[in-house]
Design goal:
Radius of gyration: 20 Å
Order of helices and strands: HHHEHEEHE
CATH superfamily of the largest domain: Lrp/AsnC effector binding domain/regulation of amino acid metabolism (RAM) domain
Keywords: DNA-binding, Transcription, Transcription regulation
GO biological process, one term: response to amino acid
CATH class of the largest domain: Alpha Beta
Organism: Stenotrophomonas ginsengisoli
Number of strands: 4
Largest sheet: 4 strands, antiparallel
GO molecular function: sequence-specific DNA binding
Shape: elongated
Pfam families: AsnC_trans_reg, HTH_24
CATH architecture of the largest domain: 2-Layer Sandwich
Strand order of the largest sheet: 2-3-1-4
Helix content: 25-40%
Length: 161
């Protein structure tokens, strides 16, 4: 995706949508000092341009029984296109993995995993991850406490002086 020109009003609008995703168009318009019709046109353009990729609710993991969170670093034994594609296809099927990032450095991928408990994590690790073809090594870290979690992107960095 190419860089899309965003002005200050676009950035304010995006910040409001990130914070208050259920706000009505009239509420958004008021918060960013636009008319409702101008606000709607901007939101539709941001959606069409792919800046806004969708809408959703932020669930609280513990409230729904997902009490254990882990970050798992994965090293592959081979780095050819076929081996990478096979790993990526496997990860896509694992519900426990909410994010997977390709990395630089000594490990190839970082998985963000949510599970019910240690038994569930053990089953995920032994039955899925370690059985995936091409996985050479894994290193897991469990989240003890979340110090900061803000899912919205830092739009203030994009403002032009």
């Amino acid at each position: 995706m190419s860089n899309i020109a965003l002005d200050r009003t676009d950035l304010r609008l995006l910040a409001e949508i990130q914070r208050h995703g259920r706000a009505t168009n009239a509420e958004l318009a008021q918060r960013v000092n636009l008319s409702p019709s101008a606000c709607l046109r901007r939101v539709q353009r941001l959606e069409t341009d792919g800046v806004i990729g969708g809408y959703g609710a932020w669930l609280q993991p513990r409230a729904i029984g997902l009490g254990l969170q882990a970050f798992v670093r994965v090293q592959l034994s081979k780095h050819g296109k076929e081996a990478i594609a096979h790993f990526i296809d496997a990860v896509a099927l694992w519900d426990e993995v909410v994010a997977c990032h390709a990395l630089t450095g000594d490990m190839d991928y970082l998985l963000h995993v949510y599970v019910r408990d240690l038994d569930h994590f053990s089953a995920f690790l032994l039955d899925k991850l370690l059985n995936a073809a091409g996985v050479a090594d894994v290193n897991s870290s469990f989240v003890l406490r979340t110090v900061k979690e803000f899912r919205a992107l830092p739009l203030s960095q994009l403002e032009r002086g």
